[in-house]
Amino acid sequence: MARAVNYQVAALYRLPLPIPQLPVSRPTTATIHTDALRHNLTKVRQTAPNSKVMAVVKADAYGHGLERVASALESADAFGVAAMSDAERIRAAGISQPILLLSGLDEVSDVARLAELQTDSVIHHVSQIEFLEEAQSVARPIDVWMKVDSGMHRLGFYTGDVPVIYGRLQALQGKGIVGKIRALNHFAASDELDSPVTQQQMDVFQNTVQGLQVERSLANSAAILSWPSSHCEWVRAGGALYGQTVVEGKTGADFGLRPAMTFSTRLIAVNQIKQGERVGYGGAYECPETMPVGVAAIGYGDGYPRAVKSGTPVMVNGQMTQIIGRVSMDLMTIDLRGIGGADVGSVVTLWGPELPVETIGAAAGTIGYELTCSITRRVRFQED
Ligand SMILES: *Cc1c(COP(=O)(O)O)cnc(C)c1O
């Protein structure tokens, strides 16, 4: 079970109470496999045996549910989040592991909030150092991670500026505002196994932080799995913990990972449609013969991508078949030719251990991460 909100802890951190789950009556369900989450954390630890593991749980734990995932992965060495409200939710769930705000503080008032929530901050821009300098005192020093731009050119300090930035952070350390100083870098293409970019970024980063007394973190999931020389003191695992990979043409299972989510629903109608008749919006699919067509209670209103075409795989009663016609807001239509026992109430699986979310992501022109992140609030969540 997901850990309930501990109201005493919530009061301690002055936390807003969580938004309740919407009441839902549809059979559309995301089942989170907490044993798979734990298996994947073990796999990451085995792959990077000398590193501490930060479990990245941003975007509601890649759509799997923040409190649920943080509770299942409480043995992680830290959690990485993208918003202060995520840190609030983790603390409200009674979890005391270190937390890192991956894009860091946004305003001066965040300094006190970070200290209250015992949350560490990435520092990627001078404005954030200024916020820290403006704060006269804090309840407890804030541990910071200095982000070095080793070549991705999104967030981070230019390598030539790092000595000065490090000096300013040390001065803040002297004033008791900053605690530990660490350093991180983010890879632009660690999923491209034959690209020289990752090795170049590693070299730039290591040269830049050489001589500084800092723990380092370079690797995201793809680097954990494919670039062992990037492991260092800390690795930051996101997708791998959910059993997913972004390496093109591969699935998490190819790396010994187990999918942490099954997305499923049920058939609400089975109809015989005549040869030559068209199915759904725009008549996008024409029946090549008279055939049984199933209608499943799921659509883009639940977060299933509308972009997929006829022919995208789907499972009915554990048997592989295909989507036909356009995915609509509440419904999709399914080819039931040759599917034994398919009837109203039959279980329809959109993705899960037998049908990788990476396959559906590719069919939609995206990655599995985006699909699990896009599940909407009318979907019922459960754990097994
Ligand atoms: C999202 C994120 C990660 C995790 O990336 P995965 O590819 O999911 O492992 C690691 N570090 C930072 C800074 C991130 O924003």
Topology:
Elements: H1 7-12, E1 29-32, H2 34-47, E2 52-56, H3 58-62, H4 66-72, E3 78-81, H5 84-92, E4 99-101, H6 109-116, E5 119-123, H7 126-134, E6 142-149, E7 157-158, H8 162-174, E8 178-184, H9 197-209, E9 216-217, H10 221-226, E10 234-237, E11 261-273, E12 278-279, E13 285-286, E14 291-296, E15 313-316, E16 319-324, E17 332-335, E18 347-351, H11 357-363, H12 368-373, E19 380-383
Parallel strand pairs: 1-19, 2-3, 2-10, 3-4, 4-5, 5-6, 6-7, 6-8, 8-9
Antiparallel strand pairs: 1-11, 11-14, 11-18, 12-13, 14-17, 15-16, 15-18, 16-17
Helix pairs in contact: 7-8
The structure holds pyridoxal-5'-phosphate (PLP).
What does this structure look like?
The mean pLDDT is 95. It is built from twelve helices and 19 strands. The chain has helices at residues 7-12, 34-47, 58-62, 66-72, 84-92, 109-116, 126-134, 162-174, 197-209, 221-226, 357-363, 368-373; strands at residues 29-32, 52-56, 78-81, 99-101, 119-123, 142-149, 157-158, 178-184, 216-217, 234-237, 261-273, 278-279, 285-286, 291-296, 313-316, 319-324, 332-335, 347-351, 380-383. The protein has two domains: 34-255, Alpha-Beta Barrel (TIM Barrel), CATH 3.20.20; 261-383, Lyase, Ornithine Decarboxylase, Chain A, domain 1 (Beta Barrel). The termini are close together. Strands 2, 3, 4, 5, 6, 7, 8, 9 and 10 form a nine-stranded parallel beta sheet that branches. A six-stranded antiparallel β-barrel has the order 11-14-17-16-15-18. It has a two-stranded antiparallel sheet with strand order 12-13. Helix content is 27%, strand content 23%. α7 (126-134) runs parallel beside α8. It is α/β, with parallel strands linked by helices and 384 residues long. Residues 56, 58, 102, 186, 220-222, 236-240 line the site of pyridoxal-5'-phosphate.
